């Protein structure tokens, strides 16, 4: 499995190299700064961070050499064997539709970066966006994270007879299904939330018969109490790969802490580093909307120690991080964070 993951990363580095060479954004034997390169490519300002992360990934593998702010190719650039995508995706546990969609996106990357076309419509053309997002999350690594998160959720204590559960950014419901199965024999009030009615509507259809299920819109960037979540009301808060979307993470963590009782449990999954494959695919969705302020930093994903400090400041103690760095599952760069709300 990790062999396939490494091969997919190498293929994706080749995709980056191909775009930069084909568009003459970074020709052979030419030194350019990231700004000059983005200008030559015609990158839309909101996507310039993506190309800068490409350059960071390519320099990390020494495919690109760096001299101050200037960059140039270091020998022969990596190659992209696009025909290998279906086999690699299958080995990693993804449905075949994801390889097809990624190949489509790769073909359109220059136009996507220039904002001449957008990724969201491409996803819509691929079918129901909820199903597409669900397919993106159907892989061996995310499945293992969700199963472990669900097992930890089963151990969460309740202040009374009914476990109060809040799920943030429920999306396509992959984490939801795992947690509901784990809590099948628990008396619970489970509140599924997302910022989009597209996902709450799909969840309503999927989970309407679940006992104790509630559904509603919730924005991480607004006060929770104004959105119907009372302070200190929750025993368990879960968030599957969503907290990186917060505009102001410290403030959002403080909001989560405010709605959680002392000793309550926070379980969330996050990537802790760039994924080269996703930098040529789904990470385009992380660019700010056209006309909105640009990203304050190019780094979307934080290492564990930065998370630990952010959680501490917000009133949490990080109890555990899974999988351990030595675990083969760690190669995907996803981690499950298990924290508890501490009293002050």
CATH architecture of the largest domain: 3-Layer(aba) Sandwich
Question: Can you count the helices?
Answer: 13
Q: How many strand segments?
A: 10
Portion in strands: 15-25%
Give the strand order of the largest sheet, numbering strands 1, 2, ... along the chain.
6-5-4-7-8-10-9
Shape: globular
Low-confidence segments, given as residue ranges, are none
How many structurally independent domains?
A: 2
What does the largest sheet look like? 7 strands, mixed
The chain-level mean pLDDT equals 94
Structural class: alpha/beta
Range of helix content? 40-55%
Instruction: Give the H and E element order.
Output: HEHHEEHHHHHEHEHEEHEHHEE
The first-to-last residue Cα distance is 44 Å
Predict the CATH topology of the largest domain: Rossmann fold
Q: Can you identify the CATH class of the largest domain?
A: Alpha Beta
Relevant CATH superfamily of the largest domain: Vaccinia Virus protein VP39
- Compute the CA-based radius of gyration: 21 Å
Protein name: Class I SAM-dependent methyltransferase
EC number: 2.1.-.-
GO molecular function: methyltransferase activity
Keywords: Methyltransferase, Transferase
Descriptive report:
It comes from Pseudomonas canadensis. Residues 166-266 form the Methyltransferase type domain. Helix 1 (2-22) runs antiparallel to helix 4. Strands 6-5-4-7-8-10-9 form a seven-stranded mixed beta sheet, with helices on both faces. It has a three-stranded antiparallel beta sheet with strand order 1-3-2. It has helices at 2-22, 34-41, 48-60, 85-91, 96-113, 119-125, 129-137, 140-154, 174-182, 197-207, 249-259, 276-279, 304-314; strands spanning 32-33, 64-67, 70-73, 163-168, 188-194, 213-217, 234-240, 260-271, 316-322, 334-341. The chain has 344 residues and is of the alpha/beta class. The protein contains 13 helices and ten strands. It has two domains: 2-127; 140-271 and 302-341, Rossmann fold, CATH 3.40.50. A hairpin with a 2-residue loop joins strand 2 (64-67) and strand 3. The relative contact order is 0.12.
């Amino acid at each position: 499995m990790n062999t396939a993951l490494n091969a997919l990363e190498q293929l994706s580095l080749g995709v980056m190299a191909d775009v930069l060479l084909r568009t003459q954004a970074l020709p052979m034997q030419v030194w350019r700064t990231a700004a000059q390169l983005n200008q030559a490519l015609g990158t839309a300002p909101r996507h310039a961070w993506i190309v800068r992360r490409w350059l960071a990934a390519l320099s990390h593998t020494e495919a690109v050499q760096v001299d101050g702010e200037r960059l140039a190719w270091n020998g022969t650039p990596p190659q992209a064997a696009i025909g290998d995508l279906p086999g690699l995706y299958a080995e990693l546990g993804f449905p075949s539709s994801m390889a097809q969609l990624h190949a489509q996106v790769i073909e359109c990357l220059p136009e996507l970066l220039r904002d001449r076309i957008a990724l969201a419509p491409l996803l819509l053309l691929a079918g129901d966006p909820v199903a597409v997002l669900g397919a993106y999350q159907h892989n061996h690594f995310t499945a293992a994270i969700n199963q472990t998160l669900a097992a930890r959720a089963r151990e969460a204590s309740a202040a009374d007879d009914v476990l109060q559960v809040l799920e943030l950014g429920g999306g396509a419901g992959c984490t939801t299904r795992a947690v509901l199965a784990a809590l099948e024999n628990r008396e619970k009030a489970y509140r599924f939330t997302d910022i989009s009615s597209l996902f709450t509507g799909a969840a309503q259809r999927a989970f309407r018969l679940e006992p104790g299920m509630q559904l509603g819109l919730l924005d991480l960037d607004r006060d929770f109490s104004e959105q119907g979540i009372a302070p200190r009301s929750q025993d368990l808060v879960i968030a599957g790969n969503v907290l990186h979307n917060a505009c102001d993470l410290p403030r959002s963590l403080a909001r989560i802490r405010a709605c959680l009782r002392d000793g309550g449990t926070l379980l969330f999954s996050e990537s802790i580093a760039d994924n080269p494959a996703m930098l040529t695919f789904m990470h385009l969705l992380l660019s700010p909307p056209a006309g909105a302020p640009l990203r304050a930093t190019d780094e979307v994903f934080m290492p564990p120690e930065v998370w630990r400090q952010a959680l501490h400041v917000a009133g949490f103690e990080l109890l555990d991080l899974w999988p351990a760095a030595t675990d083969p599952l760690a190669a995907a760069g996803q981690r499950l964070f298990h924290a508890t709300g501490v009293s002050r």
